[in-house]
Amino acid sequence: MSKPSLARGTRDFGPEQMVKRTFIFDTIRRSFQRYGFQPLETPAFENLSVLMGKYGDEGDQLLFKLLNSGNFSEKLTESDLNAGYKALTTRISEKGLRYDLTVPFARYVVMNRGTLVMPFKRYQIQPVWRADRPQKGRYREFYQCDADVVGTESLLCEAEIVLLLHDILPQLGIEDFTVKINNRKILTGIADMIGAHGQEGTLCVAIDKLDKIGKDKVVDELRERNFSEESINLLDPVFSITGGENPFTDLRKWLASSEIGLKGIEELEQVWDMVESLGLKNPKIQFDVTLARGLSYYTGAIFEVKANNVQIGSICGGGRYDNLTGTFGVPGISGVGISFGVDRIYDVMEELNLFPENQTISTKVMISNFDKEAFKYGLSVLPKLRESGLNAEMYPDSVKLKKQLDYADRKNIPFVILIGSDEMNTGQLTLKNMKTGEQQKGTIEELIAAVN
C-alpha cells in the first residue's frame, strides 16, 4: 500500500488557511467590482495551440502538457521518438494546463468579440499551473487574481491599475510596498541604442533577472546569448539609472535618438500625471528601467509590486499588451492588466501577522446537545440563528458537556448556547462566552442581539 503524499509544488489548505485565503479573495473581488470589472472564468486546460508561443521559449518549457486520451503512443514511429521532445510533444499532447489567465482571456475575447461591450473590463480568480522548480514563494499550482481592460489604448487604465493596487494592498494590511513601473518601448529603444535591434525579447529575459542574480551574471547571460561586448558596454548606463523626483531626465538624454524609447517615456510621464490628478496621496510608485517582465507579449507599461521587508518575490505583476489577440487572427485589440499572486500575498500576510484575528472564526455560535428532547428543541433554534446572519451549528451527538465545549474551544467558536430542561421550560436560554467563561440568560432574540 502506497503512502499518500502531495505533488511537489502544491499545497493543501485546511479550514483555518481557507478562511484566511477567502478573506484575501473577497477583499480583492470587492475592489475589482468597485472599479467596474466583471467576473469571468475559463477552463483549466486549453489547446496547446492557444498556449504555445505566448510566453517565450522559457515559458513554453514550463507548460504542463496533458497526454492525449487513449493509446497516445499507438501511431508513434521511431522517427517521432528521435525527432526531439518538441516535435514529440505535438504528437502525444494536444492540450495543456493554463500558464496564466491572460492568454485564455485573449482567446475568450477573440471568440466572443461580437457580443462584448468594448472596452471590456473583466476580473478572473482561478488557479494556474507552471512546471517550475518549487521553492519558497514559488509553487507549481497557485491562484491568480487578474483584472484586465481590453479595447482601449487610454493610459487611464494604467493609472487606475496604480490606484487599484493602492486600494487593495492596504485593505490586506500590506502598507509597505513598492509599485515598480517601466515600459517595454523603453527597453526596445535601449536594444536599438546598443545595436541589438530585434533582440529586445532576449534582452528583457536577461535584465528581468537582475534583482535575483545580479549585474555580473546578467552580463554573463547576455554573452551566452551572443550579445557583443560593444553592446554590453553600451548597456552599462541601464544599471546606474535610478528613480528620484524626476526619474526620466537622464533616460530622456540617453534615448534622445530613439523615437520608440521616447514614446515609452512620454507614456509613463502621462501615467504619473494622471495618478496625481486622480488624487492619490504619496503614491508608492517607482520607475525602474531594469524591470522587464519575462513574458513576451507585453508591449507598453509593465508593473511589478514588491512587499518590502519580507524575503518573498513580487506579489503582483502585469502590463499592456497590444498584439496578444493578433496571435489569434484579430489584431488591433489593445489591453492592459494586473495580476495579484494570492499565494505570495498569503505568505507575506502570514510572515507579517496581518490577518485579522476573527478570520479564524468560521462558526460563531454552537448549540449544545444534552439529550433527545434538548436536541429536538435545538433544531427549532438553529434556523433562527442562521436567519439572523450568524454562522451556527449544533453538536450532533448527545455526549458529555465537557466534550462538546472542548470541540467548541478547539474550533475557536466564541459562543455556546446551552439548552437543558430549565431552558426548555422557561424559554430563557443560556449563552456561554467561551473566552471569558461568563454566562447570561435570555430569549433567543435577546441572545442573538448580544452576540451580534
Assigned CATH architecture of the largest domain: 2-Layer Sandwich
- The total domain count is 2
* Major sheet: 8 strands, mixed
Provide a count of the helices. 18
Class derived from helix and strand content: alpha+beta
CATH class of the largest domain: Alpha Beta
Q: What is the overall pLDDT average?
A: 89
Indicate the overall shape. elongated
Number of strands: 16
Q: What is the fourth-level CATH superfamily of the largest domain? A: Bira Bifunctional Protein, Domain 2
Which assembly state applies to the chains in this document? Answer: single chain
Low-confidence stretches: none
Q: Rg, please?
A: 28 Å
SSE layout and pairing:
Elements: H1 15-34, E1 38-39, E2 45-47, H2 48-51, H3 56-61, E3 65-67, H4 78-82, H5 85-92, E4 93-97, H6 102-112, E5 120-129, E6 141-150, H7 156-171, E7 177-183, H8 184-193, H9 200-207, H10 210-224, H11 229-234, H12 249-254, H13 259-277, E8 285-287, E9 301-307, E10 316-321, E11 335-341, H14 342-351, E12 365-367, H15 372-387, E13 392-394, H16 401-410, E14 415-418, H17 421-426, E15 429-433, E16 439-442, H18 444-451
Parallel strand pairs: 1-5, 7-8, 12-13, 12-14
Antiparallel strand pairs: 2-4, 3-4, 5-6, 6-11, 7-9, 9-10, 10-11, 14-15, 15-16
